[in-house]
Amino acid sequence: MVRWFVCFLLTVGLTLGADLVGTWKGIAMSPGGREMKIVIVFEKDGDKLTGTIGNEEGSIPFDEVKVEKDEITLKFQYQTSYTATLKVQGEALEGKYTSARGESGTVRVTR
Predict the structure, then answer these.
(1) Which tens digits make up the pLDDT trace of 38-49?
(2) Which residue ranges form the domains of the chain, and what is each CATH number?
(3) pTM
């Protein structure tokens, strides 16, 4: 029974990862309340999920993409290190980001 449950959880995580593949566009709110247009692109690399985050000026790769249940954790570097934690909300991904400097804001992207 435990083995079945663990396999089920892994399948849900892998299915969610596969469902994330593609381009997501939206807004990140800065700590000062400024809207920043962002683009997140998820790709599959074998059994691993990878991708980039960017804007009109360019994009940077994720250092880490972790999917657990309905939560996605993204780690990346841009002048400092950032961690974003997003949850699937219907057809959107919503959550917040925090920098190593302690700055934080919200994120919402859709396909």
Answers:
(1) 999 999 999 899
(2) 2-110 (2.40.128.120)
(3) 0.82
